[in-house]
Amino acid sequence: SQTIHQWPATLVQPVGSPLSLECTVEGTSNPNLYWYRQAAGRGLQLLFYSVGIGQISSEVPQNLSASRPQDRQFILSSKKLLLSDSGFYLCACLPQQYTQYFGPGTRLTVL
Amino acid sequence: AQKVTQAQTEISVVEKEDVTLDCVYETRDTTYYLFWYKQPPSGELVFLIRRNSFDEQNEISGRYSWNFQKSTSSFNFTITASQVVDSAVYFCALSGGDKIIFGKGTRLHILP
Q: Could you give the 3-state DSSP secondary structure of residue B88?
C-alpha cells in the first residue's frame, strides 16, 4: 500500500519569505498527486493536481505554484508568502484504485 | 457540475448515542465513487470507505455503517454507540474525473 511523506511537519515563516513544501509517495507508481489547503476550521481547498511528471493543473489563482519533477515527488512553492497563505497543507495521492490517500500534512503559519 | 453537500456543520451527541452524518451529492456521471474520510484533531485525513455507484448495498464495519441511496443521491454515515474517540471532522467526497470533490465537512463532538 502507498505511503505519503510530507515535510516539514510545521513551519513558521515571515510574510514575504519563500516557501517550499515537499511531498513524496512510496508504494505506487504513476499516481495522480494533489495539494490541498485547509484554513483553520474550514474545508479542503484543492490547489493543484498532477496526472504525471511535469503536468500541473491549477485550481485557484494565487501566489503559489507546484511542480512535479519526479513521478512520486510533488512540490508546493511560493516566492513571497502572504498572511492568507497560513493553513494546513495536505498532499494526497490517487493511485489506480480510485481511492485518494492523504499525507500527514504541514501546518504553515505566516507571521 | 459536481457537488457534495454536508448540511450539518456541527453535531454534538452524548457518548453511546447513535449519530448519522448526512451527505448529498450531485453528478451527471453514470460511474462515480463516493467516499467518507475522518479528520481527527491530529489533522491527517483517514480513509473510511469507498462506494462504487453501481453498488447500492449498505455496508457495515463494526460500529460504522453507510447507507447509499441513488434515488435520493445520498450517502449517509451512521455511528452506532458513539465513543469519545469518534470526535472528529468527517468529510464526504465524490470522484470527478481526475479530482475528488469534497463536502465542507461535519464536525462531530461526542460528549462523555
A: strand
Contact B99 A46 (CB under 8 A): yes
* Chain B residues near residue A43 by CB distance under 8 angstroms: 91, 102-105
Tell if the CB–CB gap between B50 and A99 is shorter than 8 Å: yes
* Phi then psi dihedrals of residue A85, to 5 deg: -80, -10
Give strand ranges (E) for chain B. Answer: 3-5, 10-14, 19-21, 24-26, 33-39, 46-52, 59-61, 64-69, 74-79, 88-96, 99-102, 106-111
CA–CA dist B65, B68 (Å, integer) = 10
Q: What is the pLDDT of residues A51-96, one digit of tens each?
A: 999 999 998 867 899 999 999 999 999 999 999 999 999 999 987 5
Q: Under 8 Å CB-to-CB from B71, ≥6 apart: which residues?
A: none
Chain B CB within 8 Å of residue A100 CB: yes
Chain B CB contacts of A105 below 8 Å? 43-44
